[in-house]
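Same chain as my last thread, 360 residues:
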Amino acid sequence: MPDAPSQYAPPSHQRSDTAVAVHALQLHEHARWDDFVQACPEATFFHRAGWRTVLEQGFGHRCHFLYAEQQGDICGVLPLAHMRGVLSGKALVSLPFCVYGGVAAANGTARQALLAAAQALARQLQVGHLELRQRDGVVGSGWLARPLYATFRQPLPDDDDAALLAIPRKQRAVLRKAMASGLHSRLEDGLEHFFPLYAASVHRLGTPVFARRHFALLRSTFGDDCDVLTVFQGEQVQASVLQFYFRDEVLPYYGAGSVLARSTGANDFLYWEAMRRARARGVRRFDFGRSKAGTGAFDFKKNWGFAPQPLPYAYQLIRAASLPEVNPLNPKYALLIRAWRRLPLPLANLLGPHIVRQLG
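reply #2:
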């Protein structure tokens, strides 16, 4: 199938041996893009070309994956998606539904070329704002920062004994109790246990659920770098997580527990098993993901001994006068959250995917 023409025409540059040109990623270039991402220290799992497939096929968002090229080699990437919705307004985001994004570059020249191209594209699309989810928060002057999130990442100890000792005493006692309660885990090929558990869990939180096909698309797009780990007590499902692997790191990304998981310690056991199995796979770093300060998830990760690292995403206002406040901590959404919790679960599962695609 021939490549679809991009809606974005990058600005031309003076050609020379050292000139940097910005191009829009074409379908036949995905492997070349991913080779750079795999080698670039700044890149993350969320810079992989497969996210273009997930965002376009799963959510219908038009993507503009830009790369900088120098002397025939890719020297920087910037994946972007054009968001349009009643809740989110119009925005150019790197990347929605991902905790990280922004520019990953081999040098400053490539970085500046990609930033300039992104700003030009944002103006061309007439979006309200441009958002870069840089993990280090470093972009440059003239950008706004919003310190809403923190991320939790640290190396994994070498073995189970060292890993247990690294956990603070109180949390270690909770985990030991869970380990003695007859829980066990297994990796699963399908979503038959994960999805119902996840849908019920986010419904209790008052959050719209993703469509089941979103998770199926993640599995098919990323293959062995995306798996599902589920915890059982006997044959009763207690907790489950869909996780990503990138280089030497594991990211347990979409997690869920049953109503019994708190009393059985299944949530604690789930993440212990994620760490243990990751070490056996040769993984050396655990990314607990992002959380908002003042939430239960934030405290849960700190209780494991993970130190929060600020995650100040970078923004530029294009046509908007201010940044949107689309997050559950915004008081104006409190009534909607309470109402969503009261919806019958089948109805929430039907409506949720149409709403969540606007949230990013």
